[in-house]
Write a structure and sequence with these properties.
0% strand; 84% helix; mainly alpha; 7 helices; extended
Length: 187
């Protein structure tokens, strides 16, 4: 029976040997993030279109499920939800500009609400460690939300694409640093 030390050692060896895959994935994500920053409008509409397709697929699946489980008490409501998904998906695909405009406004207001909540939480925890960071995070969220709303509805053309591109960059850098730390693991 292997000991904990031997298991840890074998895991470290495995991580140390396979760090290259994660490193490559990090590089790929970073490249996609930079490409995405260069085409945020296209990325916004591609994500909205894909969202519409997902809604349509979800609606069809729910309607199929209604016919399979027509004896169920909730079948009528389940069917209504499926129809709403189909209508929503159709509208998103029919008018992606309106969809991105509405989603961008919701994201901006959500950022403002989250920022205010963080500031209130920091006030409640003002004697705790790290409350200054909560206030800073809250202020940043509020500022980003306000900046999006100031340029709204034009911001709807690029905000979603920029968020996706930045997420790819952050994830890529995280994978890159994790891979480099895995490479340096020793017995």
């Amino acid at each position: 029976m292997p000991t904990k030390q031997k298991l840890r050692s074998s895991r470290r060896n495995e991580l140390s040997r396979n760090w290259g895959w994660l490193f490559g994935l990090g590089i790929l994500f970073i490249m996609m993030g930079f490409i995405g920053l260069g085409m945020t409008v296209w990325l916004t509409f591609a994500s909205i279109f894909l969202f519409g397709i997902f809604l349509l697929i979800a609606g069809v699946i729910q309607l199929i499920d209604v016919f399979k489980c027509h004896q169920w008490k909730g079948a009528l409501y389940h069917g209504l939800i499926g129809l709403l998904y189909l209508i929503g998906g159709g509208l998103v695909i029919y008018d992606p500009v309106l969809a991105s405009t509405m989603i961008t406004a919701m994201i901006a207001w959500l950022l403002i609400a989250v920022g205010i909540s963080r500031c209130i939480m920091a006030g409640a925890l003002r004697e705790g460690v790290g409350s200054v960071w909560l206030i800073l995070a809250g202020i940043i969220s509020i500022v980003i939300g306000v900046l999006i709303l100031v340029q709204w509805p034009l911001s709807a053309l690029w905000v979603l694409g920029m968020f996706i591109a930045v997420e790819l960059l952050v994830c890529g850098w995280a994978y890159l640093f994790i891979a480099l730390s895995m490479r340096n693991l020793t017995l």
